[in-house]
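Reading a protein record of the kind used here takes only a little practice. The integers have meaning only within a learned vocabulary of local backbone shapes. With that in mind, consider the following protein and its fold in token form:
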Amino acid sequence: MKDPRIQKLAANLVGYSVDVQPGENVLVEMIGSERDLINAIIEEVGKKGGNVFVQLTDRTVQRVMLQNATEEMMKTWAEIDLNRMKQMDCYIGIRAGENVNDLSDVPEEKMKLYNSLYSHPVHSEQRVKHTKWVVLRYPNASMAQLANTSTEAFEDFYFDVCNLDYAKMDKAQDSLASLMKRTDKVRITGPGTDLSFSIKDIGAEKCSGQKNIPDGEVYSAPVRNSVNGTISYNTPTLYNGITFENIKFTFKDGKIVEASSNDTKRLNEILDSDEGARHIGEFAIGFNPHILHPMKDILFDEKIAGSLHFTPGQAYEETDNGNRSSIHWDLVLIQRPDYGGGEIYFDDVLIRKDGIFVIPELECLNPDQLK
């Protein structure tokens, strides 16, 4: 018997997130072994008159491919998949691997080749900029372990989050997006954090289920050379299968001049991938009312209620500060009292304290209003 929550999610992805139109080509990529959601998506695309194409990816196989890949192979792989992506109008990416650390022992130089020669042209440049796309996870035992819950409890949480009324959230985000577009100076304070930068004339974009599921953020980017001060992130993060904790950056005129973590050497190797990796490409404020604690999955963690993320690497085209990089690493700071608290100021006015918006025009984004 089909789980009606899966069919509802598939309908939302196809009809709302990427808004499939008759005759459009839709690439559905599944990383993992689950099939119920992908089959439901195929049915929903068919109802809309779209043409569906499927890519099934196994991380354990991909790991061996990357370990043995040459630069020539990477370029050919990218050329093949880039040609396919150019023929797509929509992309739905589902990540459901059993082990989030499957790529942890792929040599760093191989991952750099993959990120620069494959992922950057195929996804950052083509898919992100030229298709209607949405990416999401799929609940399984591995994700439940990361969230420290039973599998059944995690599934309930997952569908509560993913089947939220995102159209309602979209309207509530208008006030924050408008305020960010009018803002020049931003200051972020908290334990180990005192950071200032400008977002003047960069713009702001709402995220309410069209690109990510789950969703719940408004993003901008700092003026590239305006960032000064220190930020101490309090959320563990996975990058290329490696867990980083207690990341701390110090900035001078937009550049990360000091970086430390539980693995400072590897952290700095990532930041040295290219010139843009030591500059910031995104600043975003998260407020999904159902997501409260990190689970080392950025699609969930960057939407945590009372959080923000400040992202080294590539800027998005919609809020472009000119930064270019093969890296885009969303790092999260939670400012609720149970994580140490903190403040956000726009043009010297306190707009959020300890994770709660404190000016009337933004109160609609507080958890009690969005649930």
User: Anything to note?
Assistant: The longest strand covers residues 25-32. The chain has a mean pLDDT of 93. The chain has two domains: 4-163, 166-369. The two ends are 29 Å apart (CA to CA).
